[in-house]
């Protein structure tokens, strides 16, 4: 899947792909945002669907993950039909190019393919406008996560029929 010139978005399937996802997260969340490493990686990573954005030269520039079933229900208030988007990260050099929006669409496509009805996420408050432009709506109060203010957001998924 593409959407940004020179960048490919794909589901991470290999060990190398997963290592690339984790490297992007470490760069963005741990190094840049000072999230403690022990909070960044969790037990949900093993069962998540990870997506990866890679430049033509093989350099990873973005990632995100989708939780489903019981793992998602823990994050979204108990509804196993709603997926949980998380750990969306784009490297500083690739920001503003549309990589983040392409990653969100890829995660939504993965959620649709699994029969989910909506996607929830916990957005850092500075990123609310980004997600609102992609159709997500805020609900509930602000809360801290890793010391960073967040808000819960949700987007119902519409089935993508044949074009």
Short description:
The protein is an alpha+beta fold. The protein contains five helices and eight strands.
Question: Can you walk through the features of this model?
Answer:
This protein is 31% helix and 35% strand. Strands 1-2-3-4-5-6-8-7 form an eight-stranded mixed beta sheet, sandwiched between helices. The longest helix has 18 residues.
Number of helices: 5
The counted number of beta strands is: 8
Portion in strands = 25-35%
* SSE series: EEHHEEHEHEHEE
Global geometry:
globular
Lay out the secondary structure:
Blueprint: E1 2-4, E2 7-11, H1 15-32, H2 37-40, E3 49-55, E4 60-67, H3 69-76, E5 82-90, H4 99-113, E6 118-124, H5 128-133, E7 137-145, E8 148-156
Parallel strand pairs: 5-6
Antiparallel strand pairs: 1-2, 2-3, 3-4, 4-5, 6-8, 7-8
Characteristic key phrases:
163 residues; globular; eight-stranded mixed sheet; alpha+beta; 5 helices
């Amino acid at each position: 899947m593409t959407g940004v010139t020179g960048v490919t978005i794909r589901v991470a399937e290999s060990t190398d792909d997963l290592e690339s996802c984790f490297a992007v997260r470490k760069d963005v969340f741990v190094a840049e945002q000072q999230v403690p490493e022990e909070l960044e990686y969790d037990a949900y990573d093993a069962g998540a669907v990870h997506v990866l954005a890679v430049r033509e030269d093989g350099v990873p520039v973005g990632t995100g993950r989708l939780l489903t079933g019981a793992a998602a229900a823990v994050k979204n208030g108990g509804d196993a039909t709603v997926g949980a988007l998380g750990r969306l990260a784009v490297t500083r050099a690739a920001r503003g190019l549309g990589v983040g929006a392409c990653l969100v669409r890829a995660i939504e496509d993965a959620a649709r393919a699994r029969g989910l009805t909506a996607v929830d996420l916990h957005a850092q408050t500075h990123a609310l406008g980004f997600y609102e432009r992609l159709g997500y709506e805020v609900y509930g109060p602000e809360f801290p996560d890793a010391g960073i203010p967040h808000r819960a957001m949700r987007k119902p998924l519409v089935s993508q029929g044949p074009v």
